[in-house]
Amino acid sequence: MEKNVTLIALFAALIAALGLIPKIDLFFGVPITAQSLGIMLCGTILGAKRGALAVLLFLLLVAIGLPLLAGGRGGLGVFASPTVGFLIGFPIAAFVTGLITEKWRAGPVWLSAGVASVVGGIIVLYAFGIPGLAFMLDKSLLEATGLVTAFIPGDAIKAALAGMLTAALVKVRPASVLSRAEA
After folding, report:
1. For this UniProt entry, which segments traverse the membrane (predicted)?
2. Within 10 Å of residue 176's Cβ, how many Cβ atoms?
């Protein structure tokens, strides 16, 4: 129990730390940040439940006003901005990423964690982010989808990094990758 709480807090801190990497502001109000890599790693390393809990803790800290989002943003106002769909999708993305990593045991870890990061950390996240963006900017879903295409190359790199980092951690400290631990 203590170990779980510690890891959940540690990964919430990891997401916050990735927010210190300078964001790239896009004209429509959703920045490119490194924080989605943290969302992917929460799932690939902690697994579905713990990963989602780490992200929920991070979002709770943001909601109470801590400036933990890229660019020092925080407070309830971020949940009324063009990023709202992505923020709502963060814990679900971590959960799906973790679930796939937990269940897909065949083949190399880098592949299962990388594919899980694409499905959970990109596809699922966009499934929430695009409607939120469309709603907040009063755009159609097609227009909002066109806007988020700017994220695809960077998110693909982050998914590959999540796969490689997870595989490297499995190699050096297999017991620390809870998504791969035997139940």
Report:
1. 29-46, 53-70, 76-97, 109-130, 150-170
2. 13
